[in-house]
Design brief:
- The chain has 13 helices and 11 strands.
- The protein is α/β, with parallel strands linked by helices and about 350 residues long.
- Helix content is about 35%, strand content about 15%.
- Helix 3 packs parallel to helix 11 (about 305-310), helix 7 (about 145-155) crosses helix 9 and helix 12 packs antiparallel against helix 13.
- The strands form 3 sheets. A 6-stranded mixed β-sheet has the order 1-10-11-7-3-4, sandwiched between helices. It has a 3-stranded mixed β-sheet with strand order 5-6-8.
- It starts with 17 loop residues before the first helix and ends with a helix.
- The protein has helices at about 20, 40-45, 65-70, 75-80, 100-105, 110-115, 145-155, 185-195, 255-270, 290-295, 305-310, 315-330, 335-350, and strands spanning about 25, 30, 130-135, 160, 175, 185, 200-210, 210-215, 220, 225, 230-235.
- It has 2 domains: about 55-115 and about 275-315, no CATH class; about 120-275, Collagenase (Catalytic Domain).
- The chain is globular and about 55 Å long.
- A hairpin with a 4-residue loop joins strand 10 and strand 11 (about 230-235).
C-alpha cells in the first residue's frame, strides 16, 4: 500500500509576490506600534501554556477546513483516518484584536493549492535537516539534543546538529532594541548568510540562537524566519525565556521554554516544505502574533497541514504519532504525548 500521494507539476502560486513566496516571517512577531517593548501588555503575553491541549470556542462553520483537506475517497482506510479531523482538532477560533489573523489577514492554502505550488520535496540525496547553533548557549538554554529528537520524530527525516559558530562570524546587521536595550540581529541577513552554507545533503538548514531577532526596521521583533526556496531558517530562543523581561521564571520554566522552542522550530521548518500559515484549525502551522497566542496553539499539525507534509515525505502516519508520543513523554510534554497516542490508535484501527 503506497503511503505517498501523487504530486502535480509545480506551477507558480497565484497571487503571491516574489518576496512573499520566498520569505515567510514567523507568525510570532509584533509590529512596532505607538507603544512597544516590555510594557504591561507585552509582558502579560509571556504566559505559561495550558496544562492540556486548549479547548477554544469553535468557529461555527467548519466546512471550509474540511474542504481544504481535499478528496480522500481514493486513499487507503488508514490515510483517510489520518486526514479525518474526527474529534481530535479544534476549528480556528475567531481572532482577538491583537491576534495574527486580525492583524495579518491571509488567504487559505488548501491541499490542492499546496500540490500546485512550487514546493520542496526531500530527494534521495537531500534528506537531512541540519540545526546550526549561532552564538553562546547557556546551560539552561533548550537542549539541542532534545530539539533534534523532536524534529526527527515530527518530520521523520534525519537530523544533525552542526558545531556552533560565533555570532561575530555571521554577516548580519545588528541594533539595540529601544525598549529592552538588548542587542538584536537582522534575521534576513542571517538567512542570506545561511544560503551559502547549505550542506549538499541537506533538505534544510535551521539556525538557532539565543540572540533576539528582528525582520526589518519597522518591526519590534520576530521569533524566527524561514525561506521556502532556499530551505534555510533562523530561530531565536531569547524571548521564549520567561526571564527575558526580568520576570521570575517559576516552576517548570525549562519545560515551558522547551515547548515554545519546539513550536517555533517545527513551524519554521514546515515553511521550508512550502506550507503557508494555517487558517482553518488550531495548528502548529497557524499564525500567531504574540506569545500568549503561540502558547495556545498545539504542537501538532491539523489534517490539512499533515496531508501536505505527507505528500512531501513518505511516512506511516500512525507510526509517526507513536514516535512523537514517546519523545514528548520523555521530555514531559505530557498533554501532547497523550494526544499523539490517541491519534495513533485512531489512525491505525479507528479506535479511541
Amino acid at each position: 500500500m503506497p503511503l505517498r500521494e501523487q504530486r502535480f507539476s509545480p506551477v507558480t502560486v497565484a497571487g503571491l509576490t516574489s518576496a512573499n513566496r520566498t520569505w515567510f516571517a514567523l507568525v510570532t512577531s509584533i509590529m512596532v506600534l505607538a507603544s512597544c517593548g516590555p510594557d504591561a501588555t507585552e509582558r502579560g503575553r509571556n504566559l505559561a501554556p495550558p496544562s492540556s491541549s486548549p479547548t477554544l470556542a469553535p468557529t461555527p462553520d467548519v466546512a471550509p477546513g474540511v474542504a481544504a483537506i481535499g478528496d480522500t475517497s481514493q486513499l487507503s482506510p488508514m490515510l483517510r483516518r489520518a486526514f479525518d479531523p474526527a474529534a481530535d482538532f479544534t476549528p480556528m477560533r475567531d481572532p482577538g484584536p491583537d491576534d495574527w489573523l486580525a492583524q495579518h489577514p491571509e488567504s487559505p492554502q488548501t491541499f490542492a493549492d499546496f500540490l500546485a505550488a512550487d514546493t520542496r520535496v526531500p530527494g534521495p540525496q537531500r534528506r537531512v535537516i541540519y540545526l546550526l547553533p549561532i552564538g553562546e548557549f547557556p546551560r539552561d538554554a533548550p537542549p539541542l539534543a532534545s530539539l533534534s529528537t523532536i524534529v526527527h520524530a515530527f518530520f521523520t527525516l534525519e537530523v544533525r546538529v552542526l558545531p556552533a559558530v560565533k555570532l561575530a562570524d555571521v554577516t548580519a546587521k545588528r541594533r539595540i532594541h529601544p525598549a529592552t536595550k538588548k542587542s538584536q540581529v537582522l534575521a534576513p541577513d542571517v538567512l542570506r548568510w545561511l544560503t551559502r552554507r547549505l550542506p549538499e545533503d541537506a533538505f534544510g538548514l535551521m539556525a538557532v540562537t539565543m540572540e533576539d531577532l528582528y525582520p526589518q526596521e519597522s518591526w519590534n521583533f520576530v521569533f524566527g524566519m524561514a525561506s521556502l526556496r532556499e530551505r534555510v531558517g533562523v530561530q531565536s530562543f531569547a524571548r521564549q525565556d520567561p526571564a527575558f523581561f526580568g520576570d521570575p521564571r517559576g516552576d517548570g520554566w525549562q519545560r515551558l521554554m522547551l515547548r515554545r522552542a519546539t513550536w517555533t522550530l517545527v513551524h519554521e521548518i514546515s515553511h521550508m516544505f512550502g506550507l503557508s500559515h494555517c487558517v482553518h484549525w488550531e495548528c502548529v502551522v497557524a499564525g500567531s502574533n504574540h506569545q500568549a497566542e503561540s502558547d495556545g496553539r498545539p504542537l501538532h499539525p491539523c489534517p490539512v497541514c499533515l496531508r501536505k507534509l505527507h505528500s512531501s515525505i513518505e511516512f506511516d502516519p500512525a507510526e509517526r504519532e507513536l514516535r512523537l508520543a514517546a519523545v514528548l513523554e520523555q521530555l514531559e510534554i505530557k498533554d501532547e504525548a497523550e494526544w499523539s497516542k490517541r491519534r495513533a490508535a485512531w489512525i491505525r484501527d479507528g479506535t479511541r
